[in-house]
Amino acid sequence: MANIRTYTLIYVALVALATGKFVFFHFDFFTYGMAMAGTMGLIVAKSLLIAGYYQHLVEEPRAITYMMGTAVFMVFLLTIAAGYSIQ
């Protein structure tokens, strides 16, 4: 189990990543496409931090982590397929 210092650092990182979304969309330096791409990168980073530390996947065997990654990928494929069938 991680100590309170680790959780505090993860929390600060999550707040910084959430602030990044604000920066991408509220400053005129970034185009909409750049802001969307940057936001997607921030989403991936935040998801990995949350799954790794708050859901304790860091402490699990690698097989569990790979299984979770495969499940997330399959959900992504189902979402793409559902979006395609709606059109």
TrEMBL record:
Keyword Repeat: no
Entry's localization field: Cell membrane
Signal peptide (from-to): none
Pfam families (UniProt xref): COX4_pro
Main localization of the protein described in the UniProt heading: membrane
Transmembrane regions: 7-27, 33-54, 66-86
InterPro entries for this protein: Cyt_c_oxidase_su4_prok (IPR005171)
The protein's name: Cytochrome C oxidase subunit IV
Species assigned in the record: Halopiger xanaduensis (strain DSM 18323 / JCM 14033 / SH-6)
Organism placement in taxonomy: Archaea, Methanobacteriati, Methanobacteriota, Stenosarchaea group, Halobacteria
